[in-house]
Amino acid sequence: NAEYMGNPNFNVYQTLHQCELNQTSMSRKVNKIQEFMSNTGNVNCAKFGKLTGQLISTGGHDRKVNIWRMGSPDIVAQLHGHTAAVESVTFDPEEEVVVSGSAGGTIKVWDLNSERLSKSYNNGHKTNVTCLDYHPFGNFFASASSDTLVRVWDLRKKSYLQTYKGHTKHVNTLKFSPDGRWVVSGGGDGVVKLWDLTAGKQMEDFTRHSAEITSLDFHPTEFLLAVGSADRTITFWDLDKFKQISQTQVDSRPIRSIRFTPDGSALCGSTSETLKVWAWEPVTCHDSVDVHWQNVSDMHVNEKSGELFVVSFTESFVSVWMVRLQKLHPFADDRSTPLPPSHQSPSFAGRPTSQERQYMTSPETKAKRLAEIGQNQDEIQERFGLAGVHRIIEDHNHRALKQKQEQEERLLQLQREAEAERLQQEHERLERERHDRAVQEQRRLQEDHERKEQQRLAVQDQERKWQQAAIPLSNPMAHTRVVPSKITEPLGLDLEKFNPQNVRQDTLLIEEILGDHHCVCQMLTQRLTNIKVVKSLWQKHDKHGAIRHVQSLNDEAISVDFLKQVAKVKGKDLTLDISVGLLPLLKQILLSTYESHLLVGLEVTGMVWHGFGDLIAKTLASKAYVVDVSLEERKDKCRIARNLFGEIRNTIQPLKDRKDDVGQRSRLLWRELPADTFD
């Protein structure tokens, strides 16, 4: 891959394995029509555009979203901005917007016309964004993640509208219903959940599969849902009664992707090695084709030609396949291609009855469908001989306008409910914060009052003691034992000098001492609070946060206490990342003037060097023969560690001349850090 990317004729290499459609290719059922290197790293996802099916979006470990046009070796757009591997992509219905999700939980929205980033959401998911789907007609999209959450987003807002919880494992796939009222999700727990966007809650869940769900698809005209699973079966569900209709036989491989034909007459299901065409009432496999296309990512049926296009990927290469459905049963029996779907099916609001099925096949309905796909009135009259063509078209336009208005009203209602819920939550949050602040202020005032009262009582008590001590000294000789001699004064001592001269000055001195004591108590209390914060971060495995907090305090005593605790673990919880974070702190401690602080810094520095010195040297000496992003990241960290050890070596150079324990340990560490390590 690195050789191809560095070649100036990279566009030539992108057309690797471009399939030659020879004279016999027309008789084949499946053809690989294109294969190209999509990303410099492994490809994680690939999706067809929803309007024409000609655009393909791919994402991979190189953190790029690439846009390709089917049949062309040249890239259409390359979108940069993700800081982690791209895990999922999807187009909007007009193929003007691409939404991508990364392994870090970030979602980005790209404008294909300007090839620029239009929005970025960093607060939606904590882990991998595994799947995305765009609303069929609104400015909404849905996302799901390994954190088990499903969220619905409005592109006009800065955050998500709704959050759905219920899955117990990662969510693999999700899809909006054709009318945009529902979104369905399937997860690693083998459960399919149906969510009502208007009500904002779960409607039903389907639990017949014994392994994770891999693919979902709604029937274009009937109230029907198909579910593909890693348990190698496909189930069909009646969305009117929420009951299972049928289930396919166990396949040889897990189901990778499923797609209804545009007229809904059959379902195409793919594994890593086969493509099968299914019917569901009763469940029947019409045809099967062996195709070794590995990781199938998406399927799209061309409405005009009736050809099925499949995109798959292996490592950094993407392949596009074409399946001629007219050569497969049951389409080969009818000598016809699948019919194009109507844009809005009137029967999706409920399972069609026999009268509805008769209505859908009537000449009037066919005339409406021809009007929808752009046929003129003369062709309608010529094919069906209808006298009321204008009435039919006007009636259809009226129905379409009414349906669009209803959909817009539902969306507005959804937005109003979401905004009301957000405002209610914001009001409750502000009330809680106000109450907490009031309680904290009252507690602080009470503590200040108690502290001042204790100080006042302490001063009064001390004054009382001084007064009691001063009373007997007013007559020095009253209680003095006199030496039995003729001397009338006790050995010439002036006892007046030992009397308290000014009791008021002593009282002020006591108040000053108590004030200093209060300052010291406050300082120690603040230091204890900071140590508790560091301990809490460390116990929550946020070791980088603990190190950053210690560095931000700029308190040498706290830094030394923290390093003492690090020394006690003896490297059990230390990694290279954590050690790189500790080295600047150690360098600062080694500039201390206190012997005990220097001894702690030298001990922890030696422990880190003994734990990671060999690893740093081996990593910097290793060579990569292919593009290895993880190896380059490790090398960058090792270079930082190497330079920091070099700075520490220069820092301890003056210490090795000392005659105490600090000098002895400095000399030992000096010998363990050879100078050529940091050249």
Description:
With 679 residues, the chain is an alpha+beta fold. Helices cover 38% and strands 25% of the residues. The protein is built from 14 helices and 28 strands. The chain has a 4-stranded antiparallel β-sheet, with no helix packed on it. Strands 2-3-4-5 form a 4-stranded antiparallel β-sheet, with no helix packed on it. Strand 6 (86-91) and strand 7 form a beta hairpin. The radius of gyration is 39 Å and the shape is globular. The model is unreliable at 1-27, 334-361, 372-377, 379-389 and 471-487 (pLDDT under 50).
* Number of beta strands: 28
Number of helices: 14
Low-confidence stretches: 1-27, 334-361, 372-377, 379-389, 471-487
What is the molecular shape? globular
Largest sheet: 4 strands, antiparallel
Strand content: 15-25%
Quick gist of this model?
Helix content is about 40%, strand content about 25%. The protein has about 675 residues and is of the alpha+beta class. The model is unreliable at about 1-25, about 335-360, about 370-375, about 380-390 and about 470-485 (pLDDT under 50).
Topology:
Layout (H helix, E strand, L loop, with lengths): L1 H4 L4 H4 L16 E8 L5 E6 L6 E6 L3 E6 L5 E6 L5 E6 L5 E6 L4 E5 L4 E6 L7 E6 L5 E6 L4 E5 L5 E5 L6 E6 L5 E6 L4 E5 L4 E6 L6 E6 L5 E6 L4 E5 L4 E5 L9 E4 L6 E4 L3 E7 L2 E8 L4 E7 L5 E8 L2 E8 L6 H4 L19 H7 L2 H10 L4 H8 L4 H82 L32 H37 L3 H11 L2 H14 L6 H14 L5 H27 L7 H23 L9 H12 L7
Antiparallel strand pairs: 1-28, 2-3, 3-4, 4-5, 6-7, 7-8, 8-9, 10-11, 11-12, 12-13, 14-15, 15-16, 16-17, 18-19, 19-20, 20-21, 22-23, 23-24, 24-25, 26-27, 27-28
Helix pairs in contact: 5-7, 7-8, 8-9, 9-11, 10-12, 11-12, 11-13, 12-13, 12-14
